[in-house]
Automatic annotation (TrEMBL):
It comes from the Bacteria. Keywords: Membrane, Transmembrane, Transmembrane helix. The chain crosses the membrane at residues 21-42, 48-67, 87-114, 126-150, 157-181, 210-233. It comes from Shouchella clausii (Alkalihalobacillus clausii). This is Lantibiotic protection ABC transporter permease. Signal peptide: none annotated.
Length: 251
């Protein structure tokens, strides 16, 4: 049954820019880093991917899903359909999570294709693979968060808040002892021991405290817990808003 909900949500995004972003955004990230500095290519690529391009992509996925629904019927199609509203919301988040994962895989393929032509990896292939899946896992919470923002406040707010949270404070918090308290710092902080990069994009020196691997399970667990909590809260909010609108229309 839930698969049918996911198929419906995926179909809604057919022939939209959201589908194109799955390949375009990782390609732009790699191209941007390649042009900026070949010497620190891998460090810069993962840095820009974690602090800018991934948060932007996730916010755009969520905002476009909202815009698509609004343009189609202003959510009236969902309001009038005999569906479980919480499952509809869960399906939206799940489809975007799969889009994010697909984008990570494309990013990984591009990185390895470049490595085959021009060897640039300062680390082995396994840290690069691990970094991609870590970035996916530690940004999952942003999906229900941005979906809720887009639904309540619109396209621009979702994008601005997610980027601001990462660029304005995420980079700073990632180097501090309280990194765990600021969700936007989790993917950035996890890249330090995995790839060996400072949140500012430069390679870390041997023995640097940021190389501690203990932060990785903490970041993953916190992200999954926050993802579950936000998914539950946003799902209830979505269902409640629909019920309230239905009552207003009847009245």
């Amino acid at each position: 049954m839930f698969i049918s909900y996911m198929k419906a949500e995926n179909l809604k995004l057919k022939r939209t820019f959201a589908r194109k972003m799955i390949g375009i955004v990782p390609l732009l990230t790699v191209a941007f880093s390649f042009i900026m500095n070949m010497e620190y290519f891998v460090y810069l690529t993962f840095n820009w991917w974690s602090i800018l391009f991934m948060p932007m992509m996730i916010a755009l996925f969520c905002a476009l899903a909202h815009v698509r629904e609004k343009q189609a019927s202003n959510y009236n199609g969902i309001y009038s359909a005999p569906v479980d509203l919480r499952l509809v919301w869960l399906a939206k988040a799940s489809v975007i999570a799969l889009y994010s994962l697909a984008s990570q895989l494309i990013f990984l393929v591009i990185m390895f294709l470049i490595e085959m032509v021009v060897p640039l990896f300062p680390v082995g292939p396994f840290p690069v693979i691990a970094a991609c899946f870590l970035l996916w896992a530690t940004t999952l919470w942003q999906i229900p968060f941005c979906l809720l923002l887009a639904k309540k406040f619109g396209f621009a707010v979702s994008l601005i808040v997610n980027l601001f949270g990462c660029l304005a404070f995420g980079i700073i918090a990632a180097t501090k002892a309280y990194w765990w308290a600021w969700p936007w710092s989790w993917p950035i902080r996890a890249m330090s021991p995995t790839i060996g990069i400072h949140p500012n994009g430069l390679p870390l020196e041997e023995g640097d405290p940021l190389l501690s691997m203990t932060v990785i399970p903490i970041a993953i667990i916190l992200s999954l817990l926050l993802f579950a909590v936000l998914l539950m809260i946003s799902g209830k909010s979505f269902a409640f808003a629909v019920v309230q609108k239905s009552k207003q229309e009847v009245a």
